[in-house]
Amino acid sequence: MNLKTVSILKNELIEKKNSLNSLQSQTRKIDHESEAELKDVIDRSDAEEAWFNKERMSQHWKLELTRINSALNRIEAGTFGVCEDCEDEIPLKRLRVRPDAALCLNCQESNEREAGQTQKATIGFSLFH
Ligand SMILES: [Zn+2]
Q1: What pTM was estimated for this model as a whole?
Q2: Which domain holds residue 17?
Q3: Residue ranges of the chain whose pLDDT lies below 70
């Protein structure tokens, strides 16, 4: 993979990281403002649902941030674009869609089969597209 491609993908990763960070700080701000109101909420299930959604989103963002950070680390280490399982090169086409991919499509698919997951691991990625 040439350096220009790596630096384009690196910029994309940094942009995503920044938007995730700002999403998280926005959520924290909203939390703070609505805390007083939430104390008056009579319908507990609404409050619980709101809390659950927020938790789920922040878990998701945390996971995305971890993935992005480790992709940035791989760029620094010079191992970016190499599958962590089989050490094959991850096709550029895949990296353009998921610059934070740590596995090639084959390994990703066999991992998902082993975990019994049929759902795609791309939920929420559409936030950025
Ligand atoms: Zn692989």
Answers
A1: 0.73
A2: 3-120+122-126
A3: 30-43, 117-129
